[in-house]
Amino acid sequence: MKRKLSIAFIGFLLVVSCGKDKDQTPEFDKGEMLAQIADNVILPAYQGFSVEVTALEASLNAFHATPTAENLQVLRDQWKNTARSWQHVKLFNFGPAMDYALKTSVGIFPCDTALIQSNITAGSYDLNAATNASAAGLFALDYLLFQGNTLSASQNNANYRAYCLAVTQKIKSEVSNVLNAWGSFRSTFIASTGNESTSMFSMLVNDYCQDYEEAKTAKLGIPIGKYSLDILQPQYIEARYSGFSLDLLYESMTVLRDVYRGIGPNGVNGVGFDDYLIALDKSTLDQNIVNNYNSILSDISSFSGTLETEMQNNLPALNALFTKISNQVIALKTDMTAAFGVLITYQDNDGD
Amino acid sequence: MLRYRPFETASLAPLVVFRLLFGALTLFGTVRFIANGWVQKMYINPAHFFGFYGFEWVRPLPGTWMYLPFILMLIGSLCILLGALYRWGAALFFLSFTYVELLDKTNYLNHYYFISLIGFLLIFLPANQHFSLDRKVGWVKEIDGKRWHTDLLKFQLGVVYFFAGIAKLNSDWLLDAQPLATWLQTHHHLPVVGDLMDEKWLAYTFSWFGCAYDLSIPFVLLSNRLRPFGYVLVVVFHLLTWLLFPIGVFPWVMIFSTLVFFSARFHEILLKTIGCRSIESKTNEKVESERYPLVRFGLITYLLFQLLVPIRHLLYPGHLFWHEEGFRFSWRVMLMHKEGYATFYVRDRKTKKTIEIKHSDFLTPIQLDQVVTQPDMLLQYAKIIYAHYNGRKLIFGNHTVVLNDPLVQAEVHVSLNGRPSQLFVSPEHDLAKLPYNLNHRTWIAPFQP
C-alpha cells in the first residue's frame, strides 16, 4: 500500500514538474500587477513629482526676481501642489528610493526651525549632512515659505533666499537621481514576484502597510495626543505653517486607496491588490477595505479648518477619525497580508 | 519476536558518516548565519528579549560580544567535523548553540531545537572512533560500537517525522488544505507550474501526501526492502519544500541526517571511498553481559521525554493553534499561517488618559511579527512595557507627567489559516498584572472556527 502511494506520489510530482496540462490562464498575475504598478503608478508618480519640483524651483526663482506678495502666493500654491504630489511618491520606499534615502531627504517633519535659522545666519551648511535632515526637504520649505515674515525676509536677506533655493534644488536633484535609477530598476522590480520578505512584491505590501500606519501615527495620532496621554502636540503637525495638514492626510489616504486598486496619478485603473483579493475569493474583504477608505476620506473632507484649529475646536471628531483609520489597519495588515501569504517582516530568515 | 538488545556490538560507520555530515552542515549553517548579518539583527539590535519560561536567566552578551557564542559554534562544528577533541567540541557546540536559542523565543524554529538535541546526543556517542584526528593522534581508546548508538539517532529522526505527521491530522490541514493553499498560490506566477499553484486540488494533494509521508517515512526507512525507495521520497520531498518555502538549511539537514537509516555496509563503503582505512565490518556481533544501568536509565529518560513533550498540549483546553499552549518543541511544522495586529495602550489608572505604544520603540520587526500572534509573548511584551513606563517621568512639550502603576492593555486581532481576522485579546484585560506561567490562558478571546 505504502509503495503504491509512493509511486502515485512520485508520478504526481513528475506531472507537476514536467507537465503543463492546462491552458487556462490564471485570473490574476502578480508579475502583471507589478508591471502595471510600475508603469501606471510608480513611474508617473515620480515623473509628476519631478515636474512639480521643477515648477517649484521656477516659481521660487520668479519670486526672488520679483519678490511681491502676488508671486509669493503663486509660490505657495506651487508648494502645495508639490507637497500633494509627494504623497504619491513616499509610499514606495524601496529600490532607488531606499538607496538614495529619498524619504529622509524630502519628507521629514516636523522641521527644526532653530537649526534652519542658524544655518541661514551662518550662510554655509551642508544640506546632505545627516544632521541637517530636519532642516531640509519639503517641510523646511513649509516653514520658510509660510512663516509670518517670508516676504520681508526674502526681500532683504540674501542668505534666506539662498537657503530656500538650496533646499529646493536638493529635492530636485534627489528626485531626479531616483527617477533615473528607476530606468534600470524597473525590470528588477517587475520580475521579483516571490513571497519571501526580500521580494519586491513583499516590499510593496510591507511599504504599503507602513505608509498607511505612518499616516495614522505621524499625520494624525501624534498631534492629537494619541501617543502622549491625550496631551495635544501641535509642534508635531505636518505642514503646520501652511495649515495644509488635513489636505495632505486626505491626499495620502486617496493615494493609498488608489494604489490598492491599482490606480495611478493618471487615473488608469490597472491591476492592484483588489484584483488579487478578488482572485483569492475575498471580495467581501475587498469591499470592506474600499468602503473604509471612502468613509475615511469623506470624514476628512468634512473638516473645514486646519488640523491645528480642529484640534482646539473639534477634537472628538478627530478622535473618531483616528479610530476609523486604526480599524482599517486590521483589514490591511491582518486579513489582506494573510490572504496574500507574504512575509510581513523586512528580513529574511530560516523558516520552519 | 526478537528482544531488542541495545548493547549489542554494532558498526560505528553510520555514526561516523553522520558526524561528518552534521559537522559540515553546522559549520556551513553558522557561517551562513553570521554572513547574513543575522547575529546583528536577531541578537544585537533588539532592546528586549523574550526568554523561555524557566530560562529567563539566560541573557544576551553585551553588543558585539554576541559574536562569541557563534565563534564557539564554529570551533565546536570544526571539532565535530574533524573528530578533534570531539566530545568537547560537541559539548561546546551544544552549549553555545542552545545558549543562543534560549535567548529569544522570537527565533524559535523546530529545526533549531532539532540541532540542539542532536548536538546534545553527539556528546554521548562515540562518533570519533574512525576517520578522526582523535584516533590518529591517539587521544581516544578504541571501543566497540553499540546498537543504541545509531538507533538513538534513528529514534530521534523518527520522532520528528512521526509527530509532524500526527500534528497534520487536523481539520485545517486535511479538510481545508490550509495553510498550504495560502502558501502555494503565492507561486502562481511561476513559469510552467504556475497555473497549478492556485489550484485547490494541488493544495489538497500536497497536504494529504505530506501527512502520509510524515507518518510513514520512519517505518519505510527502517525496512530494508523499502529504504532506497523511501530515501528517494525523502530527497524529493525536502527538495520540494526547499524550492517552495523559505525554510533555509532544514531540508538539507533532513536529507543528510536520514542517511543514518542505511546499513552499516553502505556507510562502510562510503567511508572507504573517501579514504577511511580503519573501518571494517563487524561480522561477529556479540551480546555483552554488562547491564550499563546508567546508560539504560539515561536512554529511557530521554525516550520518555521525547515521546511525552510533543503531546503535552493534551493537558490544555482550547484550540491548540489559537492558544498555542504546548505548541513549541513538538515538531509542529508549517501548520499555521497566522497574521495579527496588536495595539498596546498604557493608561493612567485614575484619569484613563492613554498612550498608544509605538512598537518600534520596543521591538524589532521580526519580534513584532512573532509577538502579535503568540499569547505568551503578548504577555511578556505587556510586562516589558509596564517596566518601561512605571514611575517614569514623561515629558510632552511643556507637560511633565509621571505614570505610577499604569494599566497596560491591548487590542489584538488575528487571522488564522485563511479565516477572517477575529478578536484575539480584548482591551479589557490589565495585561501587566496577569500571571506569566504555564497555566491555560483564559484572557485569550475564544476561537470562532
Question: What spatial order of strands do you see in the largest sheet of chain B?
Answer: 2-1-5-6
Radius of gyration over C-alpha positions of chain A, nearest whole angstrom: 23 Å
Compute the number of strand runs of chain B.
6
CATH superfamily of chain A: M75 peptidase, HXXE motif
CATH architecture of chain A: Up-down Bundle
Percentage of residues in strands of chain A: under 5%
Number of domains of chain B: 2
| Helical residues, percent of chain A | 55-70%
Largest sheet of chain B: 4 strands, antiparallel
Average residue pLDDT of chain A = 89
The coarse silhouette of chain A is: globular
Give the N-terminus to C-terminus distance of chain A in angstroms. 30 Å
Which properties best describe this structure?
heterodimer, A: 352 residues, mainly alpha, A middle domain of Talin 1, 15 helices, B: 449 residues, alpha+beta, four-stranded antiparallel beta sheet, two-stranded antiparallel sheet, 6 strands
Short description:
Chain A is built from 15 helices and no strands. With 352 residues, chain A is an all-alpha fold. Chain A is globular.
Walkthrough of the structure:
In chain A, helix 2 (30-65) runs antiparallel to helix 3 (69-89). Chain A is globular, with a radius of gyration of 23 Å. Chain A contains 15 helices and no strands. Chain A is mostly helical. Chain A has a single domain, classed as A middle domain of Talin 1. In chain A, 68% of the residues lie in helices and 0% in strands. Chain B is globular and about 80 Å long. In chain B, 49% of the residues lie in helices and 8% in strands. Chain B has 2 domains: 13-314, no CATH class; 337-433, no CATH class. Chains A and B meet through helix 1 and helix 15 of A and helix 2, helix 5, helix 9, helix 10 and helix 11 of B.
